[in-house]
Every structure is written in C-alpha cells, then in structure tokens.
Amino acid sequence: MTSSQIKRRLGLLSIVVSAGLLAIKFYAYHLTRSQAVLTDALESIINVFTSGFAFYSLYLAELPKDENHPYGHGKVEYLSVGFEGGLIVMAGAYILYSATLSFFHPHPVGRADWGVLLMAATAVVNLGVGLLLVRNGKELKSVALVGDGQHLYLDALTSIVSAVALLLVAATGMVEFDSAAALLLGGFILVNGWRMVRRSVSGLMDETDTAIVTEVIEELQAQRRAPWIDVHNLRVQRYGANLHIDCHMQMPYYFTLEEVHSQLFDIEELIKERFAVDVEMFVHADPCTFAACSLCLMAECPVRQHPFQHAIPWTLQNAVRNQRHRLD
Questions:
Q1: pLDDT tens for residues 241-296?
Q2: Backbone phi, then psi, for 71, in 5-degree steps?
Q3: Which GO terms describe its molecular function (predicted)?
C-alpha cells in the first residue's frame, strides 16, 4: 500500500469516527441536558467538518507539480490546519458565551450515569484514533493528519472533563460543576484553536522549521568531505510532506565544472537518503578564496597560501547566515 493510500484511508477513518461519536454525544446530551456535554458535542461538529476538509487536502497535496504550482500542492495541508483552527476558535468563543449564561442560570442535570458511560466511551475511541493519526502522520510527514489527530486528542480530553463534571454533579448535587466544566472547556478549546491557526500561518509564511534545518545541517556535517569548504545561506521549505532545500557551498575555485557537478550530486543524494520523503535540493557553488585556506580541509591543495588551522563546525547558528565563514 502506498503512502497516499494510507493517508486517504486514515483521513476517511477520521471522518467516520467523528460522525459516529458526534451522534453519541448528542444522544448523551439528550439524556443529561448537561452544558459540559453540549460543549463537547458542539466541538465534535467541528471535528466532522475539519476531518472532511483534511481528507480533501490530502487528495490535493498528492497532486503532481504543474505549471501553476511548480512546487506542488503540499501547502494545502497548512490551509487545512488553519481552517480547522479557525473553526475551533469560533466554537470556543460560542461555548464560552453559552457556558457563561448557563453558569448564572443553571438547570438540572439528569441521567448522569449514562452520560458518564457514553462520554468515557467516546474519549477512549478518540484517544485511540488520534494516536493512530498522529503516529502515522509523523511517519508520513503529513501536517494534515497530525493536526487532525491532535484535534481528536483535544476532543478526548473534553469528553473526559465532561464525564468528570457529571460525576461531580451526581455525587454532590451541585449543577455549578457542570457550568464550570463548560467554561473550562471553552477556554481550553479557544487556546488550542488559536495555536493551530498560528501553526498554519507559520507554515504558509515559510517560518523556519528549526528541527528540520538542524537535521539537514547535522547530516551535512556528518558526511562532510574535504572539497566542501563551507556551507551557508541554508534554507528549508516544507510543501506538505516534501522538502525544498537550497544552500551555498564553497568549493575549490580550480575544480572543473564536471568535478563541481559530481560533488553537488553527491550532496543531494546524501540528503535525499536521510529523509523518507521527496526532497528537492538546489546547491549554489561558490569558488573559494585564499581567506578560506585556514579552514579548508583539502590536504593536497595546489594553490594553498595559508596553513590549515581548523575547520568550522556547521551549526544552526552559522549555516543559515548568508555569509561565508572565516577564522577570526
């Protein structure tokens, strides 16, 4: 089974599970008339819409490059996460408003036993499916699947809080616990929705993914060869599961075009082997200068004018700068 097929099946599973649990939660609200349960059910409506959008985004992300999208369609996954986060923010705001009214005008809660049982069951299912989506999403480098799975985690947590609120109401007879739980969930949902929107904007605006950039630099450092005198201006962009990497590599100025091409080809192949996704890499070759002699590892350089002192380790701090390295 291909990665695309796995993604689509997981996306479809998320839709089916979200729709089924939504029905269960509204049935639980019908039995209990609990504000906390209603909060959880309203948040689950968002689950269904966002799971559907995530499923469609997975289809779009797999479309090949074309004239209008030379880097592919992968960034639609960030749009999916942003859409999901936006809906969650709106749901959280409405839930806070509704819970505030309920707190000042509480109403009785009934059938708490059935409510606890149903909400606990939905929490277990959401937790299991969410774990499955996040784990596979990380393996397949799918932002949409990870975001969908994290949303199911959130849904599981709200169900647990709802169940605990019903238990407290049943044990104490104080319906204020129900309204307080709804207020807590509304605020929690609002904050997490905003975080998803923030993550979406970061991806669409090509904010630096420090973890990925560090991985690329560490691989270049581990595979470092003598002709690779210096690397700088390294940038990494993510397009869905795929990566676009470009950097400047300083090499001996006397290398022939064929020798430079051979070195650049090796660099690209090493990086592609490191990541289990499609990697598009462009390396700009810079000719060395005599100022680089003291950090150059070429043992038998025919034009060396300064003795080798030591190589500069490539790190996140120096490899991303748009300037050549040199000893002080």
A1: 677 888 999 999 999 999 999 998 898 888 888 876 677 888 899 999 888 898 88
A2: -105, 10
A3: cadmium ion transmembrane transporter activity; ferrous iron transmembrane transporter activity; zinc efflux antiporter activity
On whether both 173 and 239 belong to a single domain, the answer is: no
Give the tokens for residue 116: 């606890």
Q: What is the 3-state secondary structure (H, E, C) of 228-252?
A: CCEEEEEEEEEECCEEEEEEEEEEC
Cα 237–238–239 angle (5° rounding)?
120
Pair of tokens at residue 220: 């270049």
140: left (phi over 0), alpha (psi -120 to 50) or beta: alpha
Please give the distance of CA 304 from its chain centroid, rounded to a whole number: 47
- Of the three residues 204, 229, 261, the one that is the final residue of a domain is 204
According to DSSP, residue 282 is labeled E
For residue range 11-64, list pLDDT tens digits in order: 888 888 888 888 888 888 888 878 778 777 877 777 777 777 777 766 766 666
For helices 112-139 and 3-32, the axis angle rounded to 10 degrees is 170
| 41 and 97 inside one domain | yes
- The DSSP secondary-structure symbol of 185 reads H
Question: Measured between alpha carbons, how far is 114 from 125 in angstroms, rounded to an integer?
Answer: 17
Q: Which domain covers residue 243, as residue numbers?
A: 210-319
Task: For residue 80, give the nearest of 196, 209, 208 by alpha carbon.
Answer: 196
Give this prediction's pTM: 0.56
